[in-house]
Predict the structure.
Amino acid sequence: MTRFDANRLRETLTVADGAWATLLRQRGLPARTLAEAANVRQPELVLELATAYLAAGARILSTNTFACNRVALTQRGVHEDPERWNRRGVELAREAATGTDTLIVGTMGPSGRMLRVRDGDRGAIVEAFRRHALELAAGGVDALLLETFSELEELLLALKVAKEATGLPVIASLSFDSGPQRTATLMGETADACGAALDEAGADVVGCNCGAGVAHALPSVVALRAATSRPLWVKPSAGPPELDDGRLVYTLTPDEFVHHVPALIDAGANIIGGCCGIGPEHIRKLSAMVERRHR
Ligand SMILES: [Zn+2]
């Protein structure tokens, strides 16, 4: 029985974690190692980051399993079976959260194919989502997190497959980085249309993550809130990284990050965390700010 309670999330403000892949790199994961493979090859690094997010005040922890989708991995030239990466990803999150009431959400990213342009084998994509969802569910996650999707149609498909396969609550989150106000997906679907479609399709939580960055997130949050009464999940990135000596560097400071957050809360965000470039120090500032507001 999952402890995930969407009604409760809708009435409260909850702090979630920050990024995984970009932060594991910052903490020394070699560029040649897929971030999710670290669950098996460098588990201490993953455990350390999970522990840092909890110490910073995160009450929802996502698993380091974003790319463990077989279609996505094949496209990246990875032919290893991700079952162990999924299993260890959940185990590490649970280990970090031992003795706390932290919710663990199993992260699933997109397939890397665009359904609308009939790119790729739909049957293979469905099967990849199904196995990803089942492997995370087997580890005992409280909910599934579908995040950083750039196409509504693919997210709706993943939502249906994940729900049917596991019966778990599902958080469905898109990346908005296009259009004049950065309120559209790469495929041109607007936040208001996406919010309405995900609500209709039964997503337990609707959200936006990554995208154009926290400085541009407000219009998308406003549009999603107007389109759905579900809890709103908001995990923006730090914004575009800069290239420094061949490495991608995110320059947004924790103070700059939290500067944008009150407006997101006022617009109706219920769960706030961060995506690419947002680490434990940003989450610590965020938690302190949320605590001050609700004292
Ligand atoms: Zn991101």
In short: The two ends are 31 Å apart (CA to CA).
